[in-house]
Write a sequence for this structure.
């Protein structure tokens, strides 16, 4: 079939001797195959600097099998996860990603395959479109597409896309050629799982149909305000007789117990924690990755992957204003578990992204001294920070097995903007999920953190994600625990 038989979608990029395509609408993330990315990382793609590379598989993958590459090299990896992701400093201008389809393919369904084949000397390559039909899934977890004998999928098209002809949505990522006029593709579901792990905030925007919690989701219900005696002017005086705390409902007691178990399960681990900072709906202005070591609940940071110096906290980004979380992922479960001044009630259950969840609301007044806020004045050579007590409210979402999957916190700042350096409408959202480390049983651990605050007319945010969980190895050096104020930090 002819080249550029119709205007080609602007979504592909040449990466080494393969093809890549824009994952997101603004084209800041480029997807290709693992077997292409393993050959090396380009410094730039279409003029934009590459700042990160993520691999979905590799020799250590439990499903890895020996693959004989065209260059004669032997590369063990899992073909059903033959994916890699390049992150760029800035989006590629005038390039945009297509939408995706998670629907099951039907045998005979018409598709089109796009890629940059090696038909001439690299880099003078042209986008090629090949018409094909879905054939069937393979035993290795790939999808097989049969194309007409007059067309051909050439070398160099690995990492290209398979697009449903009717809906123009991406249904697979080309892995290579099979036997007898077949092209093999990695299912989009594998791409969704991969991106959800390495870029969870991008995943929820790029794949709106996925059944997962939005790490930036707003609370389900309006603020919970406990009933008060409006005529009371003073706190009731204690009689001097031992008083017992009013017994809470059984479901609230169960929530506190599960919150304590969650906090206890996060006392010791090593993971990679990534941060990105930005404002409004813009792309991130700054990013950083750390190896975080949590020992008896205390955090230590080290630049990832080659950092030597150990830090007590993540360093602030070099931008004008920012919001930075600290240890909300640990602090919030402990607060729900132990702070009995925190008034909790169970709200009506809710269905969120197809999952039925129990929703608990909590509230604390400023007089309860349960929640705190720390605005920071940065004067380059020194900082001025002051911790102030504030009122707060939020929600805890619990699944059918009583696993806490999300906790939010909203700080009440609007009444004292001057003291809070102009900050108001500040909130935190933390999500949790099951992780498995080695042969240990699966356990709950933090997956994402989201901090957002409004200053003046601008909204500043910090997005964090945990990945690469592992336990301490015998060669790991245990560090002395240090105290941390555990407060969200904001700079003006």
């Amino acid at each position: 079939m002819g080249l550029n038989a119709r205007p080609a979608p602007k979504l592909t990029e040449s990466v080494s001797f393969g093809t890549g395509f824009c994952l997101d609408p603004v084209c800041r993330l480029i997807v290709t195959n693992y077997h292409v990315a393993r050959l090396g990382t380009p410094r730039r793609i279409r003029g934009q600097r590459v700042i990160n590379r993520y691999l979905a598989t590799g020799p250590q993958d439990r499903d890895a099998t020996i693959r004989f590459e065209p260059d004669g090299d032997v590369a063990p990896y899992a073909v059903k996860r033959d994916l890699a992701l390049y992150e760029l400093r800035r989006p590629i201008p005038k390039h945009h990603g297509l939408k995706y389809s998670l629907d099951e393919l039907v045998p005979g369904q018409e598709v089109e395959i796009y890629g940059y084949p090696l038909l001439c000397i690299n880099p003078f390559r042209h986008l090629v479109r090949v018409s094909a039909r879905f054939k069937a899934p393979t035993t290795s977890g790939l999808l097989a597409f049969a194309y007409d004998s007059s067309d051909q999928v050439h070398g160099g098209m690995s990492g290209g896309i398979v697009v449903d002809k009717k809906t123009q949505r991406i249904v697979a990522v080309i892995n290579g050629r099979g036997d007898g006029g077949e092209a093999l593709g990695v299912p989009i579901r594998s791409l969704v799982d991969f991106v959800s792990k390495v870029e969870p905030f991008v995943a929820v925007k790029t794949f709106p149909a996925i059944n997962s919690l939005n790490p930036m989701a707003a609370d389900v219900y309006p603020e919970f305000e406990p009933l008060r005696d409006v005529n009371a002017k003073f706190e009731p005086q204690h009689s001097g007789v031992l008083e017992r705390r009013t017994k809470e409902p059984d479901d609230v007691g169960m929530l506190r117990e599960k919150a304590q178990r969650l906090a206890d399960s996060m006392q010791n681990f090593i993971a990679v924690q990534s941060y990105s900072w930005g404002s409004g709906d813009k792309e991130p202005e700054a990013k950083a990755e750390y190896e975080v070591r949590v020992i008896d609940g205390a955090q230590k940071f080290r630049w990832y992957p080659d950092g030597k110096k150990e830090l007590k906290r993540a360093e602030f980004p070099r931008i004008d204003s920012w919001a930075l979380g600290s240890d909300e992922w640990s602090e919030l479960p402990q607060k729900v578990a132990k702070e009995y001044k925190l008034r909790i009630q169970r709200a009506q259950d809710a269905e969120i992204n197809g999952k039925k969840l129990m929703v608990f609301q909590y509230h604390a007044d400023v007089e309860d001294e349960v929640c705190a806020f720390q605005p920071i004045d940065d004067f380059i050579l020194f900082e001025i920070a002051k911790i102030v007590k504030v009122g707060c409210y939020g929600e805890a979402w619990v699944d059918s097995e009583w696993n806490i999957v999300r906790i939010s916190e909203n700080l009440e700042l609007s009444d004292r903007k001057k003291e809070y350096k102009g900050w108001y409408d500040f909130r935190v959202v933390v999500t949790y999920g099951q992780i498995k480390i080695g042969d240990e049983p699966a356990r709950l651990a933090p997956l994402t953190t989201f901090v957002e605050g409004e200053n003046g007319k601008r909204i500043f945010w910090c997005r964090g994600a945990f990945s690469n969980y592992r336990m301490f190895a015998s060669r790991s050096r245990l560090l002395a625990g240090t105290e941390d104020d555990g407060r969200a930090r904001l700079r003006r």
